[in-house]
Amino acid sequence: MWRGKRVYLIGAGKSGLAASNWLLSQGAELCLNDRKPFEAFAEDSQKELTALESRGLTLELGAEPNVEGWGAAYVIASPGVPLTLPALRQAAEQGIPVTNEIELGWQIRRPQVIGVTGSNGKTTVTSLIGQIMDDAGLAFFMGGNIGTPFIQAAPAMKETDWALLELSSFQLAGILSTAPKIAMILNLSPDHLDWHQSFDHYVESKWRIAAFQGPEDRLILNYDDLLLREEGNRRLREGKAYLPGGMRVQGPALWWFSRKEEPEGGVYIDREGWVAYPSRSAEGGGMIRIRPVREFALPGKHNLENLLAALSAGLALGIAPGTLRRSAASFRAIEHRIEELGEYEGVLYVNDSKATNPDSAIKAMDAYDRPILLIAGGDGKGVPFDGVAETFVKKGRFAALLGKDRNRIKEALQTCGFSHFQMVGSIEEAVEACHAQAKPGDLVLLSPACSSLDMFGSYEERGRAFKEAVRSLTPSAYRDGEGGHNGEKE
Asked: What is the pTM assigned to this prediction?
């Protein structure tokens, strides 16, 4: 299929390099474009680019994309490259397929995909599902928007293999046929509006996770998210989805999860505080209970939602309730997402660098009852900070603001009548400022509500800088978080 085909790739990051390697092995004629000049790449990337060039790849670095000039028959854009880019719009208008490495991996082997998306919680839920699958003895690949690009694993997979993929709105916007066996949308709130141009386009991109599903597939939605509930019910009414046990239609079986209510066909919290779900196999055709909520270690209401989502995926996989009970009891926070580092002089330090949008930061603040000293700021991606300010002023004592959009956060705080903040130039300075203001019983929370890319290479790098700054207070100031992963494109 690919031998002799002229393929134009935009973006020489992890996924672009992985796609280039595979396509070259298939005999494709490739041009790899990136706006960054060669010398701006890390040494390892420079070596890989040079090796690819020696195999026949055409490099087009430090330049705007020129799809038409190269005569491409197929275009693959890396996550983060806007599909509104003039070169991509022009290619689409000319009938040239424009997609990404997720779609490429799917077209190679079409394994059984579990796709997880949402504005917040994607990495946590994907990791929790991975733990459930591990506990159940299921072999799987985990990657996509975290860790290893899908294209690196897809060529060696079989159609019966499982691929657990975290999927961003960037990746979903470019898929052309990918059909997850199990698709999940966790929640919807404004994010990446600098890329999508509008919230409607962002939401539309998220829904593409279910665009190619059929009646043998599963779609899992958060019943407590009104946008998801409204659209899910519309699909049920129009025969584009069906509830478990109902007549199969063209679309997938729709399963709900809910922290607040008891929806038909889903996982919920019963009146006695147990995680439960309806089952025909239960005595009297009732419900099966998994565990009481009080036994879960993850802090915050949002993490309870994440747990319900992950257990829903486990049920869709056919995993036994006993295994789900054991997995649920052992769930722990992942690195950089409400990661409690420990207490120093009675002050709790929490690394929530993964909070790259306002809604995620709001959930982190809501997870604690302590007075908050907040470290926030970075690249806001065009999203307003009104909600962050309104939540913070209810129990916030001090804010250290940094990064590209620190003034926008300051203005939102001032609008709410809050003025106890300090503008800082680094994470280290922010930690020092919060330490000087903190009292026993307080919480110093790094929850930036912004992307890190104006100051750091990733949110992981930002989180590590915070942890090192806290460590500098005293070696016993915190304990290292367990686990971790390779990182999400913001």
From this structure: 0.72
CB 446 within 8 A of CB 463: yes
| Cα separation, 480 vs 256, whole angstroms | 35
Sole residue written with tokens 């390697």: 21
CA pair distance 92, 197, nearest whole angstrom: 18
- Number of helical H runs and strand E runs in the chain: 18, 20
Q: What is the pLDDT of residues 247-304, one digit of tens each?
A: 899 999 999 999 999 998 889 999 888 999 887 655 545 788 888 888 776 666 778 8
pLDDT band of residue 220 (cuts 50, 70, 90) is very high
Q: What does pLDDT average to over the chain?
A: 88
CA distance 109 to 112: 9
Q: What are the φ/ψ torsions at residue 488 (nearest 5 degrees)? A: -105, 140
Residue pointed to by tokens 């994440």: 306
Confidence at 129, pLDDT banded by 50, 70, 90: very high
Angle at 444 between CA 438 and CA 448, to 5 degrees: 135
DSSP output for 348-405:
EEEE-TT--SHHHHHHHHHT--S-EEEEE-SB-TT---HHHHHHHHHHEEEEEE-STT
Of the candidates 462, 465, 459, 461, the residue with the CA atom closest to the CA atom of residue 489: 459
Q: Are strands 58-61 and 98-99 parallel, antiparallel or unpaired?
A: unpaired
CA 91 to chain centre: 28
pLDDT of residue 360: 84
Q: Count Cα neighbours of 161 within 13 Å in the Cβ-side half-sphere.
A: 18
Surface-to-core class of residue 67, CB atoms within 10 Å of its CB (0-12 exposed, 13-18 middle, 19+ buried): buried
Q: Is the pLDDT of residue 121 over 90?
A: no
Percentages of the chain per state (helix, strand, coil), in multiples of 5: 40, 20, 40
Q: What is the pLDDT of residue 481?
A: 37
Instruction: Select from 73, 70, 93 the least CA-distant residue to 83.
Output: 93
Contact in structure between 202 and 193 (CB atoms under 8 Å): yes
CA–chain centroid gap for 270, Å, is 28
> Can you read off the two tokens belonging to residue 249?
């239609």
